[in-house]
Every structure is written in structure tokens, then in C-alpha cells.
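Researcher: Re-running this chain for the archive, since the previous output was lost when a drive failed. Same request as before.
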Amino acid sequence: MFIISNFLNSLAVVIHIVLQLYMWILIARAVLSWVSPDPYNPIVRFLYGVTDPLLYRVQRLLPLQFGGIDLSPMVIIIVIIFLDSFLVRTLRQLAMQLF
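Model: Regenerated C-alpha cells:
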């Protein structure tokens, strides 16, 4: 059983890191939207390529633009925080119960 426990704990750590990394990428993209970056810059293209598919889905479901400010990144960040606190904590507690 300790193998499953270690696997679940490791999975929780990886999910936590991926969610935190995506949140910071989303924050960087939101900050870049305040300026006019070079669209041919590889970093800008990477940030837009990683975040645009999820942002477009949220913007299509919830049109959250008020006065030219797009609040869809904030919705995604709230979902990331929820997943991080619920899913990661649940996996860690499950791993501890199996140990």
C-alpha cells in the first residue's frame, strides 16, 4: 500500500507545481496585455499559445469585459486556486490514509 500512497503524494506534488506554473504564466500574459509587446517575440508567442485556448473558452462562456478590462484571467486563477486547494489536499490526505 505504501507504493500507492507514494504515487498519490507524488501526483499531488506534480499537480500543485503544474497549477502554480500555469497561474504564473497566466499572470505574465495578463501583464503583457497592458503593454503592446512584439507579437513575433518567442516568449510572447509562447505565453499567448499556452493561455489563449483556455481564455477563449472562458470568454465564450462568460463574457466578462467591463470598460475594456477582461476579467477572464481572474476567473481562471480562482479555478486554479480552488483546484490546488481541493484536489491537491484531497490527494495528499488520501495518500496519508493509505500509508
